Amino acid sequence: MSVTRAPETASSLQLCRLMRPDDANIVGNVHGGIILKMIEEAGCIVGTRHCNTQNGMSCTPLQDRCLAALVRVEKTEFLCPVFIGEVAHVTADITYTSKHSLEVQVKVMAENILTGAKKLANKAALWYVPCSLKNVEKITEVPPIKYASEEKEEEGRKRYEAQKMERLETKARIEEVVPPPPSPEDAPKEQHTVGFSQSSLIHLVGPSDCTLHDYVHGGVTMKLMDEVAGIVAARHCNTNIVTASVDAINFHRKIKKGCVVTVTGRLTFVSNKSMEIEVLVDASSLVQEDKGKYRAVSAFFTFISLDKENKPLPVPPLKIDGEEEQRRFEEGKARYLQSKAKRLADKERQQ
């Protein structure tokens, strides 16, 4: 992967990477988790660089440098698939800073290096806080950026207040315990039920997964979440599937090296052409017996089913069993309708 730093400011960055076969599924579509991981890497680099430098000079003493830690990813749309052999250009810009956090907006352009054709594949907004390298619990101050206008600064402030409120609301409802998927002999035999497709992945956090703090990179966690959501979607449809969008990803608590993470995905809502999958990440220490399991990350992923020509296919209806599944289905339907209305409104504004 190459890294290109914009010469005029430390608040811009571009990463370029050739998509290889191990980045994609069996039909050549690059996994959404790979794109999410690249997005987070770019955000972490530009955020960390900005928080440790100002006007090209160090703005913090050597003994109190910091590392930008991901706390939230706003709703992310996967606008078109990326394929093996294309080059992904990931551009990250810091667009808002508060006293202790910063917003990074990222765009992913996919380039066909044989034809020169380029397409916008993804846009995302991420929020980081700078954690001291000496004391990970200490949040350091963020150097301010210069805004193009007062209107831009005000728009950023409104985004900051909105995500702060959403994080608090989400945190209040994430303690629900998700039952583990049934063993193969006890798994529901009826297809298209929640239990039939529910899946979990267990991962031991090692050094290669971690930051300088020995805590997991946000991008590593998002990649695992996308993998589990993809398994759920594929089990439900039994077709090729791709990530269409990700609702806000909230990082509630840090995951340290040596923890065992359990990533669980389950269907919550199905429309004619899409599937919403709730993905929850729980963590527990492998070596500290007194540390119980806790909820670390939560999000909703949306997948679509594709035919051999990458055209959308109808999705089998979800069979609901019980009041709890019905409640989650209705909540998912509300999110689906809200997202659909927003897309239509954005389309009308662009015309």
UniProtKB/TrEMBL annotation:
<dbReference type="GO" id="GO:0005829">
    <property type="term" value="C:cytosol"/>
</dbReference>
<feature type="active site">
    <location>
        <position position="226"/>
    </location>
</feature>
<keyword id="KW-0677">Repeat</keyword>
<keyword id="KW-0378">Hydrolase</keyword>
<keyword id="KW-0719">Serine esterase</keyword>
<dbReference type="GO" id="GO:0006637">
    <property type="term" value="P:acyl-CoA metabolic process"/>
</dbReference>
<dbReference type="InterPro" id="IPR006683">
    <property type="entry name" value="Thioestr_dom"/>
</dbReference>
<dbReference type="InterPro" id="IPR029069">
    <property type="entry name" value="HotDog_dom_sf"/>
</dbReference>
<dbReference type="GO" id="GO:0009062">
    <property type="term" value="P:fatty acid catabolic process"/>
</dbReference>
<keyword id="KW-0443">Lipid metabolism</keyword>
<protein>
    <recommendedName>
        <fullName>palmitoyl-CoA hydrolase</fullName>
        <ecNumber>3.1.2.2</ecNumber>
    </recommendedName>
</protein>
<dbReference type="GO" id="GO:0052816">
    <property type="term" value="F:long-chain fatty acyl-CoA hydrolase activity"/>
</dbReference>
<feature type="active site">
    <location>
        <position position="25"/>
    </location>
</feature>
<feature type="domain" description="HotDog ACOT-type">
    <location>
        <begin position="9"/>
        <end position="134"/>
    </location>
</feature>
<keyword id="KW-0963">Cytoplasm</keyword>
<dbReference type="InterPro" id="IPR033120">
    <property type="entry name" value="HOTDOG_ACOT"/>
</dbReference>
<dbReference type="Pfam" id="PF03061">
    <property type="entry name" value="4HBT"/>
</dbReference>
<feature type="domain" description="HotDog ACOT-type">
    <location>
        <begin position="195"/>
        <end position="309"/>
    </location>
</feature>
<dbReference type="GO" id="GO:0052689">
    <property type="term" value="F:carboxylic ester hydrolase activity"/>
</dbReference>
<feature type="region of interest" description="Disordered">
    <location>
        <begin position="311"/>
        <end position="331"/>
    </location>
</feature>
<dbReference type="InterPro" id="IPR040170">
    <property type="entry name" value="Cytosol_ACT"/>
</dbReference>
